[in-house]
Amino acid sequence: xxxxxxxxxxxxxxxxxxxxxxxxxxxxxxxxxxxxxxxxxxxxxxxxxxxxxxxxxxxxxxxxxxxxxxxxxxxxxxxxxxxxxxxxxxxxxxxxxxxxxxxxxxxxxxxxxxxxxxxxxxxxxxxxxxxxxxxxxxxxxxxxxxxxxxxxxxxxxxxxxxxxxxxxxxxxxxxxxxxxxxxxxxxxxxxxxxxxxxxxxxxxxxxxxxxxxxxxxxxxxxxxxxxxxxxxxxxxxxxxxxxxxxxxxxxxxxxxxxxxxxxxxxxxxxxxxxxxxxxxxxxxxx
Length: 286
Hints:
Helix 1 (17-29) links the parallel strand 1 and strand 2. This protein folds into 2 domains: 4-225, Spore Coat Polysaccharide Biosynthesis Protein SpsA, Chain A, CATH 3.90.550.10; 228-285. The radius of gyration is 23 Å and the shape is elongated. The chain contains 10 helices and 7 strands. The protein has helices at residues 17-29, 48-52, 69-79, 99-103, 128-142, 158-163, 174-184, 207-225, 228-253, 258-285; strands at 4-10, 35-42, 59-63, 84-87, 111-115, 154-157, 189-193.
């Protein structure tokens, strides 16, 4: 029985993929687990396929056309035989050797994430403001500290991925989705500081596009699992606003306007709908 499957998505990584595989193999030698390496070539247009088809000691999967980072991980996870899944990138940005450190914590938690918080990490400056906003939003909605929401170096139980399978997008939001989904559902998630290096080659991430996608994704996940977190503040804000406006109207006009009543009823409806949605979700989990 395979205990650990290391899944690596590849897209135009001819310059770094061989070194990545060598580093993974060397790392796994020092781990007392039966393991496998699953490489998913996501429709690369360079020489990645020519290189990978002759590499020994890996499970090689290939998309004929480019489907996306998340789609590659899903293909790899579906094929993986391990009880635990480790993921990393093929571009040389992650300290693959730190998998040894992360594996130690799998005895006490369900997911171990390599948080890119060590001094000197080379995260692109253009992404930092967007990632900070996403992280703060996710922390508010989950009610938990999240040092790194979308790190691509992590280990998690395969069962977790299967549980939230239908939520995973095909793009770069896979890691954010599984992080938030796990934390909202009270899985034990641990963050271990790691280094992050400068990428080999050009990144395919669009900061603006992915920022909008991340924000939308976080809201969808929390609304799916914990609607009260979003709707309760909104409903209360409308109710309080209507009471304040109604008091002012009554003092100044000796009556309450139709607009004030509409705001009050809207806030009340939102609160009721949030409670119904929360009850449905809790009943579904039983």
